Amino acid sequence: MNQGIRLRWEKHTARGVRYYEVDLRQDLWGGWLLTQTWGRQGTRLGPVRSVSCNSRVEGLARVATLLKRRQHHTMSW
User: Fold this and answer.
1) Where would I find the WGR domain in this sequence (predicted)?
2) Hey, which of 26, 28, 37, 50 would disulfide with 21, CB 3.0 to 4.6 Å?
3) In whole angstroms, what separates CA 66 from the centre of its chain?
């Protein structure tokens, strides 16, 4: 069975805890879905972005790209 991955970053600020999540999971039909969620804890769910991937390898490559982007982001997550 192929396993997905879930990553979460949090940043504590004066206005609350901001979060960013990345979730790569296999759907019921065997395809792969990469979902990004971000916002502030204690408020409505923030934006959600989902993209389908042709394979787990493609999904992991997209996750690696997001990790690099997080590392270069101006906020330190």
Assistant:
1) 17-69
2) 37
3) 8
